Amino acid sequence: MSFNDDAVQLTNDDASSCKLSAVQRGYWKDSYISFFYENPERKSPEISIGYYTRVHSVRYLLKEFIKKTEGNCQIVNLGAGYDTTYWNLKDDSLTPKSFIEVDFPAVTMKKCRIIKEQMDLLEKLQSEEDDIQLSRTEIHSNDYHLVSADIRELKQLEAKLQSCRIDTNLPTVFITECVLVYLDMEYSDRLLKWISTKFPTSAFINYEQVNMEDRFGEVMIVNLKRRNTELRGVEACQSVDTQINRFKRNGWKNVECLEMTNVYRNLSTSEKQRLEKLERFDEKDLLDQLLEHYCLMWANSDSNSVNLSDVTI
Ligand code: SAM
Known about the structure:
With about 325 residues, this protein is of the alpha/beta class. The chain has a single domain (about 5-100, about 145-310), classed as Vaccinia Virus protein VP39 (Rossmann fold), CATH 3.40.50.150. Helix content is about 45%, strand content about 15%. The chain has 13 helices and nine strands. Strands 3-4-5-2-1-6-7-9-8 form a nine-stranded mixed β-sheet, with helices on both faces. Helix 1 packs across helix 3 (about 45-70) and helix 3 packs across helix 13 (about 285-290). The longest helix has 24 residues, at about 45-70. The mean pLDDT is about 95. It binds S-adenosylmethionine (SAM).
């Protein structure tokens, strides 16, 4: 664990704070996020719309994956932070066989404590209550697992996934939401290759920075450096093509990547109107600039023909 790793863990607080601020202002509904974070600073409408587009599009792909596999699947969220997708999917009655979250122990310890304390979270875990195994940093129930691991250490990660009884032959979708960019390329390449080799029917959702070579990108990098957070994997975030290439060279057959500007554009007109009316919003250019610097990636390898390639962003 390095100084940079400590700073990287704090990025989870930033993400939670932005998500809660947006939820409090009605951008989307999430009954669980306020258990994980309190009193967020108010964020600008552009940031809230950016977060809405991120959460909405990642969840859309997850739901399509669950429907396609009729729930006979697994979800693995790497660098999950305080993500609340498991509980939100439960409310939508869209559940995979197993939902696994991985993060550094300092983060999973806090998440574990909050889940243990909040009945609304704990009671959603599928299990006879006695069957839930809770330790300081980990939780195992029938369908939800929270484990601590450094995702750069593949042996450790593999052992932890095995402790969740992961089945490498079941369709599995991996998520990294603003995570790979904090890993040196050597580590993210190894991780992507390992997953594509180990899981014959799998998909990958990656959300992170893109187009980082221009002035706006440079400012983002400098701001993070000020907070001791280095974007070590930024090489892969130069363009949509560099993002696609890193997945292709690591064994992913079908790869699609869209700038968030396009993802936002594809939302229905009525939804965009709703979002843009929630608060006084007159910085359309700033929203465009922000969305241009993030992308959503959907990759899949479909050896067992679940027709994952029918799913598109
Ligand atoms: N994915 C969550 C979300 O979108 O709300 C959290 C995003 S936060 C920006 C990045 C998360 O990745 C942090 O919780 C951090 O601890 C985790 N992370 C970064 N590098 C990691 C590593 N090597 N092993 C495990 N977790 C890691």
